[in-house]
Design brief:
The complex is a heterodimer of chains A (377) and B (394).
Chain A (H helix, E strand, L loop, with lengths): L6 H17 L2 H7 L9 H9 L18 H14 L4 H14 L3 H12 L5 E4 L15 E4 L4 E12 L6 E8 L2 E8 L5 E7 L5 E13 L11 H37 L1 E2 L2 E2 L4 H29 L5 H26 L11 H12 L5 H16 L1
Parallel strand pairs in A: 1-4
Antiparallel strand pairs in A: 2-3, 3-7, 4-5, 6-7, 8-9
Helix pairs in contact in A: 1-4, 4-7, 5-6, 5-7, 7-8, 7-9, 7-10, 8-9, 9-10, 9-11
Chain B lengths: L6 H26 L5 H15 L17 H13 L8 H14 L2 H12 L5 E4 L15 E5 L2 E12 L6 E7 L10 E7 L5 E7 L5 E14 L3 E2 L5 H9 L6 H20 L1 E2 L2 E2 L4 H30 L7 H23 L17 H10 L8 H12 L9
Parallel strand pairs in B: 1-4
Antiparallel strand pairs in B: 2-3, 3-7, 4-5, 5-8, 6-7, 9-10
Helix pairs in contact in B: 1-2, 1-3, 3-7, 4-5, 4-6, 7-8, 7-9, 8-9, 9-10, 9-11
The structure holds flavin-adenine dinucleotide (FAD).
Chain lengths: 377, 394
């Protein structure tokens, strides 16, 4: 029974926070809301790779850190708190998917270069159908008997897609769903820039009969491609939930400090219960959300039967939490909270965007309902 | 990070589970044979637990306890809940008076009181709240004057749960009216049969009579029944208020409630569909399950922090707040799912599930008041955890 961060994880957390404080600034994000979007400069990306972040939960044999899912989540949390753009998270999710899938040739071909920051990979799942997740994927992969195939469809909201070397594309295969690794320069693949409300660059990926080989399918050792896709989406969701936790606790801290200092009616506003009780509720949500996140990370590592429902719990709960904590943060700052200069709206924007990515709270509640109907039925 | 218990702990769990199964079967036989009133039945059950060594897990062996590890304590409460075992009766004795005596009592008090708390031979109540002192407990005024070898107590307590059947009362009294309010309070152990005590049960909002008014008229309490120092009672009371807010065992009860709610929603017909087919109903249930799981993993975080002594635990006020809010949300949803039948009285032949949803609703309302109100929990979180300034002059 040990459900606390290890000493090593505490260290990872502290180092990450300090590094991001020294090397990243929310001002970059503010500027990025006006053209052009804020991206992580390549020197910073190399440093992040050199610290071992990208491959933190990847096997040692390919140069990874061999840490658990929670360690990756701790980095994602720090990234959220520092308002670092999304490629860290999509990259960690993509390499984890490559690492844990049973496709050794793909893993060996790409993982080192990816975690060293020499190449970039991302995941392309969502489509313009008003839904989220693998179930509604319509991009179609056709396979010939010689093992060659073509892939057709359109993906949206793909992070880090501009200049990506490798796209892990969710598609409908002849016998179920799966992820297919497609090179960024594959013929028939084209990328159109999209933009998020929080100033992050994402892209639309057009796949027009893109050729691929069946060895490019990420399947488990027993040939289950759908499971690999679903797990990859879960890794990614849990890391995004961690990002949302980082946003929530950062805004709560900023607002709590403000409530101690700002004086009205001769008293700090934090002594008014309408203010302090709101902050207490925010803390409740942060701590419940954090507990769910830890539970989900552990369940993923252990491949526990309730891992999907726990991922959904963490993502849904922290989506709601990040939005509500950011909104009350804005409110409790008064006029200054409504200014462009204050960081709160940057957090709120990222909270809103990430809450609506990889399944919003309602999507995940619905997924959990299916699980609970089984277990209570 | 892992949530597995050690091999020894799992062996302990297996032993306890096997014992529990047998003990419950035997107990049900006794019940079926109509053995005594509910109070007597509970005593029988509790004595069984005690004799087998599964009660007073945290207490010293010398006074009938087990000195069990934290993980064994958790395992026992998990297994009891999982098996839907009958509750223990002496809650105040086991969770408030007992731990106070363990921590602060004299040797004589420990020997005198602890074993009989465990066996439920002596039942306890908590005489803290007064008409003028609830959330602001240190404002209490029940007066005790020390005369030679005993105190003479005059005043009134209120909301005293179970006072009418209790043998003893953990009592807070004012011994120094001139001192600042936290410095003039003393902690006494009061025999409820003492002359001058009058207990009047109060009917609660749900219709039951569980809590009481207790009047003290020149009640004599021997000095040897004082816990800790004269005028030092506030610190002692504070330290055990926290005992009331345990994490994991409460969560398992929530799990059971949620399962019953889900089953209700799956049976209730609403025209051409079941209640569970409605998104609003389904999503509320799921959200409550999320919160329940969050509380469970929070409990694991706290337990781990306790075991390691890292101090990284999360304040008990937070768990208490979420737990009581969640109980109330579940209870309200129970009535919503019941639909038109939510309005039917228990005595009416049309009542659903013998009125359990209505009763559960009123029962849940007390959770955000007893043991410190939700507003006071918010204050404790805001001030104690976030470090915000005090909301009122203290
Ligand atoms: C089911 C039940 C069982 C109980 N059992 C026992 C028992 O066994 N022994 C015992 O001693 N007591 C018991 N109590 C009493 C309980 O501890 C008190 O009712 C509780 O502490 C509140 O005190 P009060 O009733 O005087 O309300 P008050 O303190 O008068 O509160 C009234 C309202 O004002 C709010 N309020 C008060 N102060 C503040 C503040 N500083 N900031 C914000 N809001 C505030 C409260 O939250 C509440 O909503 C029980 C109560 C219940 C409901």
């Amino acid at each position: 029974m040990d459900f606390e961060l290890s000493e090593e994880q505490n260290l990872i957390r502290d180092v990450a926070a300090r590094f991001l404080e020294d090397n990243w600034s929310s001002d970059i994000r503010r500027k990025g809301l006006d053209e052009p979007p804020a991206t992580i400069p390549s020197e910073l990306w190399s440093e992040i790779a050199a610290m071992g972040w990208l491959g933190i939960s990847v096997g040692e044999d390919v140069g990874g850190g061999a840490q658990d899912m929670l360690s990756a989540a701790i980095l994602a949390e720090a990234a959220g708190a520092a308002l670092l753009p999304g490629p860290l998270i999509s990259t960690m999710a993509a390499v984890t998917a490559l690492d844990r899938s049973g496709n050794q040739s793909l893993r060996n071909a790409h993982i080192r270069a990816l975690i060293q920051g020499d190449k970039r990979a991302t995941l392309a799942v969502e489509e313009a159908n008003g839904c989220w997740g693998p179930d509604r994927v319509e991009a179609r992969a056709v396979l010939a008997s010689d093992g060659s195939g073509t892939l057709t469809g359109t993906k949206i909201l793909v992070p880090d897609g501009d200049g990506a070397d490798l796209f892990l594309v969710a598609a409908r295969l002849p016998d179920g769903l799966g992820l297919i690794a497609i090179a960024g320069d594959a013929p028939g693949l084209s990328v159109t820039p999209m933009r998020r409300m929080d100033g992050q660059a994402v892209v639309e990926v057009q796949l027009d009969g893109v050729p691929f080989d069946e060895n490019a399918i990420l399947a488990s050792t027993d040939g289950d491609a759908e499971r690999v896709l679903r797990e990859a989406y879960d890794f990614w969701s849990v890391l995004l939930a961690a990002d949302l936790l980082g946003i929530s606790s950062a805004v709560l801290e900023i607002t709590t400090e403000y409530a101690k200092e700002r004086v009205q009616f001769g008293r700090p506003i934090g002594s008014f219960q309408a203010v302090s009780h709101k902050l207490a509720d925010n803390l409740v949500d942060v701590e419940i959300g954090r507990s769910l996140l830890y539970g989900a990370c552990l369940a993923l590592d252990e491949e526990a039967p309730d891992r999907e429902v726990l991922v959904s719990a963490a993502k849904a709960y922290l989506s709601d939490t990040a939005v509500s904590v950011s909104e009350s943060g804005l409110q409790l700052h008064g006029g200054i909270g409504y200014t462009w200069e204050l960081d709160i709206h940057l957090y709120l924007r990222q909270a809103r965007c990430n809450a609506a990515s990889l399944g919003d709270a309602a999507h995940h509640r619905e997924r959990a309902a299916t699980y609970l109907a089984d277990s209570f039925g | 990070m892992d949530l597995t218990f050690s091999v020894q702990d799992e062996a302990f769990r297996a032993r306890f589970r096997a014992w529990l199964e047998e003990a419950m079967a035997e107990y049900k036989e006794v019940m079926r044979a109509g053995g005594g009133n509910p109070l007597e039945q509970s005593r029988v059950w509790q004595a069984k637990l005690y004799e087998a060594g599964y009660l007073g897990m945290a207490w010293p062996r010398a006074y009938g306890g087990q000195e069990a590890s934290l993980t064994e304590q958790v395992i026992v409460s998990e297994e009891l809940a999982r098996a839907k075992a009958p509750g223990t009766i002496n809650t105040i004795g086991l969770t408030i008076a007992g731990p106070t005596i363990v921590q602060h009592g004299t040797e004589a008090q420990k020997q005198r009181f602890l074993p009989k708390i465990l066996t439920a031979e002596e039942l306890w109540c908590q005489g803290f709240s007064e008409p003028g002192a609830g959330s602001d407990l240190p404002a209490l005024r029940t007066r005790a004057e020390l005369k030679d070898d005993h105190f003479v107590v005059n005043g009134q307590k209120v909301w005293t749960s179970g006072a009418f059947f209790s043998n003893w009362c953990a009592l807070l009294v004012r011994t120094d009216p001139s001192a600042p309010k936290r410095k003039g309070i003393t902690y006494l152990l009061c025999d409820m049969k003492s002359p001058g005590i009058e207990v009047r049960p109060l009917r609660n909002a749900g219709g039951g009579s569980h809590f009481c008014e207790v009047f003290f008229d020149d009640v004599k309490i021997p000095r040897e029944n004082m816990v800790g120092e004269l005028h030092g009672g506030w610190q002692i009371a504070r330290s055990t208020l926290e005992h009331e807010r345990s994490g994991l065992s409460g969560v398992i009860a929530l799990e059971g409630n949620l399962e019953r709610l889900w089953q209700l929603a799956s049976t209730i017909q609403r025209g051409d569909h079941k209640a569970i087919d409605e998104v609003m109903v389904r999503h509320q249930l799921v959200q409550m399950w999320f919160e329940k799981e969050g509380l469970r993993y929070l409990g694991f975080r706290n337990l781990s922090a306790q075991i390691s002594g890292s101090g990284a635990g999360v304040s008990g006020s937070l768990g208490k707040l979420v737990n009581s809010q969640l109980r109330q949300k579940m209870a309200s949803l129970g009535l919503e799912i019941a639909g038109p039948l939510a309005s039917v009285a228990k005595k009416s032949p049309h009542v659903l599930d013998r009125g359990r949803w209505q009763a559960g609703y009123f029962d849940a309302l007390g959770y955000s008041i007893g043991g410190g109100t939700s507003e006071i929990m918010h204050n404790a979180i805001a001030e104690g955890v976030l470090g915000l300034p005090h909301s009122a002059d203290q």
